[in-house]
């Protein structure tokens, strides 16, 4: 199995967290925040704030936009709508990646319509200028009549992109410089390294357009308090509610939640028994991603706004699984395994979470919603807000 993590630091982190989690389940407690916090609907409907988030978060720090296996071969590309730019990401001949604004430098026609493909030449549909996969302007149509200009200056506009831990990270601002390791910090970087996500393949990337603020969406998937109330017949049957053991890394954080199968260990210490089947291990990767590590695979959920619209977002969901060769399954059995996982996730998220979260967004547009509360038990959401506030209003990570 490729998804394991035997770094000593991670083993200690897991051991401590399992111990604490069992204590919480016995005592009906949870890791918590220092205080209840009030918040206002303006956080989810103010267009001026949404504009700051677009620029000071998505235009300033690295976030995950794909898994490397989605652009595996030279000249493979994906195109993706990000908060500030529509972007093409292209695997280069030398194995590196480049990202470009998906717009012709002549008069701005969109170069690529498809969400993915393979292309040795990007040819503009309007007047047929063409660009090499490295972004340089190759041909100018009827250039004898067009006039002289410096072609080197009119290649596709590049965005900072980096591949690390199997993921493609990007900062959605052409002027930014990217350093994913620095953004992650040593603890989160080591944790992700241990998951060896670069050895996995992305099986089912899927995009959902939601009529819901991206932070409400992200909160919904950091929330262990709602499980048995919003999902009584699905997730609530197999997962515990309102008990997490969390490790805060200052910006990113990591936490364990429990499956009910853990109950057999409530009366005694688990000793060296493997616990990975009895817990869900989650990593919040600021600013907008949630990585769930399961015994057999990894899931990634990402959330981002539509430009500066506070009421709309994109959620992307992908399963990263061991390759067919690694599992020893035949093609059909391998596909069937991940499709089954996918359908379980979709039936919960799409049918149960999405309508509730869209309803929350509607409530934020009420004129008299009144202030609302985030409980001490909702620790992950407090830490998410802490980071968003810091990025939008300034200050450094502790
Ligand atoms: S807009 Fe692309 S060639 Fe004219
Ligand atoms: Fe949920």
The distinct bound ligands, ions and cofactors come out as: FE2/S2 (inorganic) cluster, fe (ii) ion
What is the level-2 CATH architecture name of the largest domain?
Alpha-Beta Complex
Q: How would a textbook summarize the main sheet? A: 8 strands, antiparallel
Q: Kindly, what is the distance between the CA atoms of the first and last residues, rounded to a whole number of angstroms? A: 36 Å
Provide the low-confidence segments as ranges. 1-5
Instruction: Determine the CATH superfamily of the largest domain.
Output: Naphthalene 1,2-dioxygenase Alpha Subunit, Chain A, domain 1
InterPro entries: ARHD_Rieske_2Fe_2S, Rieske_2Fe-2S, Rieske_2Fe-2S_sf, Ring_hydroxy_dOase_asu_C_dom, Rng_hydr_dOase-A
Organism: Actinocorallia herbida
Keywords: 2Fe-2S, Dioxygenase, Iron, Iron-sulfur, Metal-binding, NAD, Oxidoreductase
Domain Rieske: 63-170
How would you describe the overall organization of this protein?
- By secondary structure, this protein is an alpha+beta fold.
- It folds into two domains: about 260 residues, Naphthalene 1,2-dioxygenase Alpha Subunit, Chain A, domain 1; about 110 residues, Rieske Iron-sulfur Protein (3-layer Sandwich).
- It has ten helices and 21 strands.
- The strands form five sheets. Strands 13, 14, 15, 16, 17, 18, 19 and 20 form an eight-stranded antiparallel beta sheet that branches.
- Strand 7 and strand 8 form a beta hairpin.
- It is globular.
- The site of FE2/S2 (inorganic) cluster (FES) has 9 residues, from loops.
- FE2/S2 (inorganic) cluster binds next to loops.
